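Thread: Modeling a multi-component assembly for a lab meeting

Hi all, long-time lurker, first post. My supervisor asked me to bring a structural picture of a complex we are working on to next week's group meeting, and I have zero experience with this. I have the sequence lines for every component (453 residues in total). Could someone generate the structure of the whole assembly? Inputs are pasted exactly as I received them:
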Amino acid sequence: MSFKLVLSLVFLIEFYTFVYTRKLIMSETASINLNGKTLELSVITGTENEKAIDISKLRDQSGYITLDPGFKNTGATKSAITFLDGEKGILKYRGYKIEELAEKSTFLEVAYLLIYGELPSKQVLEKFRSDIKGQMMVHEDMKNFFAGFPSKSHPMGQLSCLVGALSAFYPESLNPNQNEEEEYQTIVNLIGKMPTIVSWIQKKSLGHPVVYPKKDLGYIDNFMNMIFGEVNCDKIFDDAVLDAMRVLLILHADHEQNCSASTVRIVGSSNANLYASISAGINALWGPLHGGANQAVIEMLEDIKKDGGDVEKYLAKAKDKNDPFRLMGFGHRVYKNFDPRAKIIKKAADEVLEKLGVQDPVLDIAKGLEQAALSDQYFIDRKLYPNVDFYSGIIYRALGFNAEMFTVLFALGRLPGWIAQWKEMRDNKEPIGRPRQVYTGEVDREYVDLENR
Ligand code: SDX
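Re: Modeling a multi-component assembly
Sure thing. I ran the full set together rather than chain by chain. Output:
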């Protein structure tokens, strides 16, 4: 058989295999039988082979809706930003493994990647950096109402207010139909102002005057200088400290459809502006079941230390259904294996504390707790592993932040991810988010006058 004939045969086999498999994937359906009527619902397959049954026409076709409190089995959208495999402990931003980005990238490069989908060229990154630096100053009038916060008010409450207030001070960014350039300006405005606002909040908690951004410093150096400047300059510019912050910000940058990202998307889906949507995300992150866990972990470890460091006692409390105590920093809605971020942060915690010569007894308690939990049947059965919040607070504390600032630092890292999710929802022209419900209340009741009740 001539070579050409073999080649064309191979091509034909390849072609039909390709068409057949794609046809299979495209035509894969799920059948639902309702009251004797069979519905064929199409199955969508993602690029990482995740599968979803498309129920977007279910109610029109059957009058039925689905019910899934906490959306444990429900996809809200299709997204190309972040992929995570909870069973295998895999996390990738736009297809790049988190381990590689944490080792080789910078926070603003990762921010650009998440928001615009590609690693930027040198020129594009330099412009992105300089546009952000040009926006790090915050309108001085914002300090007037910021001054009104009680000094002990929680930093997350202050942060959500200040970010929401940006819509008052930068009204040009409110147009819901911003063009690409206007949207870019709003994005770099927010990324530029966030570290300055965070530094204001930290300074207020200490009763110290604010430090202004400097044009000759980079994003993280500027942030650390605004936070610790005029106090301990040598520490803030220590390579180990700056690198730890770089890694922490990258690791927190996005995590697909978590509680706060979903909040940002649903608020943004009403055409609310970016600042309002991000402010809502900050409030969702505040909860101790979500980003607030990093503060709760340190408070828990401190309690265990004060109580003699008996980790077995606290494991027993975590397993006791009658005890409201939960092992904060453990467990995850999606990861049923190690949270890949926790592994990197645990290693960074050892390195930073050693480099800074910090002896923190709660680190040993955390390691003891992890070791005990990972060999305990209750935790094994429920696939409960340390998550991103378990070790991060130990590093933040070693860097000199107080515990109430930890979730604010989580928000600083998560900002590019929230922006990316908000932008993708708008670019895809997704409809306003408005879930259905199953009504279980009273049916028909007559009004009864007050005197007859
Ligand atoms: C983040 O979603 C994200 O991606 C979030 C995040 C991101 O980057 O955006 O990763 C950041 O929020 C990490 C999670 C931080 N929160 C905590 O560390 C708080 C402690 N963890 C838990 O409250 C809990 O694990 C959640 C909230 C994280 C997940 O809760 P789920 O998925 O609703 O699971 P569940 O509460 O139904 O728990 C399943 C079982 C239950 O036991 P049973 O009823 O089956 O007997 O596991 C138990 C729970 O009681 N369990 C725990 C536990 N977490 C779950 N028991 C003790 N201690 C825990 N921490």
